[in-house]
Amino acid sequence: MRRMASIRKYIDIGANLTDDMYQGVYHASKKHEPDLDRVLERSWANGMYKMIITGGSLIDSKKAIDLSYTDSRLYSTVGCHPTRCNEFIENPEKYLDDLRDLITNNREKVVAIGECGLDYERLHFCEKNIQLKYFEYQLKLSREFNLPLFLHCRAAANDLVHILKRNKDDIVGGVVHSFDGPQDSLEKILELGMYIGINGCSLRTKENLEVVMKIPQDRLMIETDCPWCEVKPTHPGYTHVVTKFPAVKKEKYSIDSGNQVKGRNEPVNIVQVLEILAAVRKENIDELAEAIFNNTNKLFFSNK
Prior knowledge:
Blueprint: E1 10-15, E2 25-26, E3 29-30, H1 36-45, E4 48-53, H2 58-68, E5 74-78, H3 92-104, E6 110-119, H4 128-138, H5 140-145, E7 149-154, H6 157-166, E8 174-176, H7 183-191, E9 195-198, H8 206-212, E10 220-222, E11 247-248, E12 260-261, H9 270-281, H10 285-300
Helix pairs in contact: 2-3
């Protein structure tokens, strides 16, 4: 196993650390003891500088904030994911006010509004008109708290861009995370001045690799979206992965082994995203890492 260069510093902009998998629970079935502390130790030991825990609903955002207080290097987003926007319906004003209170009372830990946006690939969770309404409804929090947006976009770039343009006066920058769209969508998002977040799900096809080559270096960020979106051996960019960590099936996993759980992504794997990007973009990996680190600090931590 090769360790990543110690001179590189990473910020994972999308880590779902409150997920049950880090408590050893998979599909409501307990497979091993909680090991989030070990997961975090692995990341800190291998160049991770800060992590942003994703909040995808009122309850999730509260959990993310609570977890962020356990370590000075952890931060959080606050918002409602498009597939969860049905939660607004009963009392939209109260739900927004509750999000607002979370931000107000935890300013030192909350670095973005989100995860919010549009997801037209999973309309069975929340229909399109509800997503559109309550995505736009949340945008005012960006200007109110001077916080950037942490955006989700699946097969919905045109509508996302249209809403962001219409509300440009309410928005203080942002990043479209886990981007996997075509080049024309990329160009429209870049025209808004947004950053682009890349993870394993952004690198699943040859077309994806061609698109990530087009992202300006000063608009690029990386993430894991763990415990999902790992870089898989079936992905075309996997041949460029240099740093690999041993993994075993969850049924055989021991928290003291130093292994990862097979199929469960970890923040430490962010190096693999960087390695693929550097290779396909033909850029010096250390210079690219520094540029990405600086982009991320500029958007999320310039006032921290």
